[in-house]
Amino acid sequence: MTGAPTRPDAAGRFGPYGGRYVPEALIAALDELTAAYEKAMTDDAFQAEFHRLLRDYAGRPSMLYDAERFSEAVGARVLLKREDLNHTGAHKINNVIGQALLARRMGKTRVIAETGAGQHGVATATAAALFGLECLVYMGEVDTERQSLNVARMRLLGASVVPVTSGSRTLKDAMNEAFRDWVTNVDTTHYVIGSVGGPHPFPAMVRDFASVIGTEARAQCLELMQRLPDAVVACVGGGSNAMGIFHAFVPDESVALHGFEAGGDGIETGRHAATLTGGSPGVLHGARSYVLQDEDGQTKESHSISAGLDYPGVGPEHAWLHDIGRATYASVTDAEAMEAFRLLCRTEGIIPAIETAHALAGAQRVASQLGPDSVILVNLSGRGDKDVATAGRWFGVLDQ
Amino acid sequence: MNAATARDVTSSGEVYRTARAEGRAALVGYLPAGFPSYDGCVAALLAMVAAGVDVVEIGLPYSDPVLDGPTIQVAAEQALRNGTRTVDVLRTVEAVARTGAAVLVMTYWNPVLQFGVERFATALRDAGGCGLITPDLIPDEAADWLSAAESADLDRVFLVAPSSSDERIRQTTAECRGWVYAASTMGVTGARAQTSAIAPALVERVRSATDLPVGVGLGVSNGSQAAEIASYADGVIVGSAFVRQVLEADSENAGAAAAGRLAAELAEGVRRQH
To answer: How many A-B residue pairs are in contact by the CB < 8 A criterion?
Structure first.
């Protein structure tokens, strides 16, 4: 479908989704951020510095890798966009460098972030060190345990990590705490939201900073094959890596866009984090989108083996692409994701993040639909070093 | 739900006007519905009204209260663990509105959205409630609520903050009915040792934008603070301090009694002459 708007309207909406459902106290900061972001998008000096840092510091462009043995195993040609090879090991650095530059332009001296798997927290701590900003990261207590390596990385980088003990003690609650901090310290502080959720302008802004992924990948596909892929596949929690790789392909009608959410123990068990597949429209964390909620509008706890996808909301642009049918969303269970995790390890010598493993399992499914002549571009959004303990337990490969 | 007719409902603006005529500020008191239990909440609210709370704010407990500090978070979590549903909030409204107090519901937006905005407005009116305070709904996003409130003749109380520009204060207060909620400090709910010095300046800015009464909240916990705010605002809003009385009590009866004692102290505070 063409004609899917890629800019939100003046009220920050993608169709009926998005908006600014936040306390009035934050509106001035959101207005300031919107103005700074809009100026930066057309400011050559900003763009030059952003792209210089992406190149010299983050290591862009990331490679497009023709994964032959994985392709053979899944029955279609799979190209991997190697965001795992970026500095800090995931796609999160792209957005964070952009927001840190904006924070500096706005004269903010402190940045805060929420993190699930810790990848966004590590990226934020990294950018804060690079720019000399004070940094505090909120992380659910459950996640500080299952992603302890990333907690240590953030602290080594000079950030404070605050384990959040309220609610489900995961990403949702870390985000609540970050909003509370922001509303209190908004004069000095920029809240570096790590996904394409939250109030306007975050969904469009984070998408724009992440869209370098798809812009590069599209050009790399044309260079490699003189054609576009048949499908683009990514995992979706909040949805930043997916929007990052989808964005450049939205106008390409021939390219199918597939997002794979965390199915946890299976949608039918109710223990999952598949917001578009198993949720309904509502408001959470500043935006109208899909939410996992009960009939009273209370947010349900999500469940996933992957801390980074364990979130009961999703970015509003995904909700829009879902409703208009431009992108297709389905879920992948913990078990399916871990099988795909093992397959990539064994066929390509690449240990992916467990988040990313959901995209790989999704790619297997898309491959079986499209057949051997098809080309599937997968966003390999992060590396799996942080998940070695979880995966080791799953596969029983740790010495007792 | 009993069908309270429109004339039974006490509007919050009316209560503010009465207080003003008496040369004092109105006292606004908050508790989340279902905390410490359905009955315990109603008992505490009735004790608060009996001791001098003029306007009652009944909180709709929500899973993700981003504008609330630890005290109200704990209370809301307890209410939800008790199985409090949106319909229980409306029952609480009905039980308290019978006293003739002006009763508003303070709620994050998603529970209203899921109940159905018009359906909620009608049910609230039928329960004898007079309006809504919406901490995460700004007028820019409130078209559905404004039209439902108009049909159901309900007050809509939006918040203004120290960070609000004069232009936004003008826009926001233009959409308020009843009164305006001024958040006295930047931050989440919770009792503070000192109330903010920026609150009087904010109230001043609100007054230059509207004739509506202005209530000041976030941080008030004792009679002296109430008296201080009453010297420049039309209403003194107290939430976390009531919640804390109930939280720290040994029993629901003791909690209701403690909330009543605090209400009496605050009611004296808002009547102190300066």
So the answer is: 113
Task: Tell me the per-residue pLDDT of B71-103, one tens digit each, with 9 for 90 and over.
Answer: 999 999 999 999 999 999 999 999 999 999 999
**How many CB atoms sit inside 10 A of residue B113's CB?**
21
Residue range B38-59: average pLDDT? 98
Collapsed DSSP state (helix, strand, coil) of residue A210: helix
Could A172 and B69 be called an inter-chain contact, meaning their C-beta atoms sit closer than 8 Å? Answer: no
Q: What is chain A's mean pLDDT, rounded?
A: 96
Q: Which residue has the tokens 């908004």?
A: A186
DSSP states along A12-45: SEETTEE---S-GGGHHHHHHHHHHHHHHHT-HH
Residue in A11, A25, A166 nearest the CB of B186: A25
Among A172, A355, A381, A386, the one annotated catalytic: A381
Sign of CA dihedral A351, A355, A359, A362: positive
Place A5 in a pLDDT band, splitting at 50, 70 and 90.
Answer: low
Instruction: Give the pLDDT confidence of A230-286 residue by residue, as tens digits.
Output: 999 999 999 999 999 999 999 999 999 999 999 999 999 999 999 999 999 999 999
By C-alpha distance, the chain A residue nearest B80 is A298
pLDDT at position A98 is 98
Going by the DSSP 8-state scheme, the letter that residue B181 receives in this structure is: E
B57 is catalytic: yes
* Chain A interface, best mutation among B62, B66, B175, by max A CB count within 10 A: B66
Q: What is the distance in angstroms between the CA of the first residue and the CA of the last residue of chain B?
A: 44
Domains assigned to chain B = 6-269 (3.20.20.70)
The pLDDT tens digits of the residues spanning A363-396 come to 999 999 999 999 999 999 999 999 999 999 999 9
Query: CA of B272 to nearest chain A CA: how many angstroms apart?
Result: 30
Residue of B nearest to A20 (CA): B141
Identify the helix (H) or strand (E) that includes residue B14.
helix B12-21
Q: Cα-flanking dihedrals φ and ψ of residue B102, to 5°? A: -80, 125
B163–A166: do the CB atoms touch at under 8 Å? no
Parallel, antiparallel, or unpaired for β A256-266 and A327-333? parallel
ipTM for the complex shown: 0.94
Which is catalytic among the residues A62, A81, A92, A306? A92
Shortest Cα–Cα distance, B116 to chain A (Å)? 10
**From B39, B64, B68, B211, active-site residue:** B68
pLDDT of residue B191 exceeding 80, the answer is no
Backbone angles phi and psi of A113, in degrees to 5: -150, 155
3 state DSSP class of B102: strand
Contact B161 A24 (CB under 8 A): yes
A381 included as an active-site residue: yes
**pTM as predicted:** 0.95
CA distances from A76 to A22, A67, A216, A371, B70 (A): 45, 10, 22, 6, 52
Instruction: Please give the single-letter amino acid code of residue A285.
Output: H
CB contact under 8 A, B109 and A23: no
Please report the pLDDT score of residue B10 as a whole number.
87
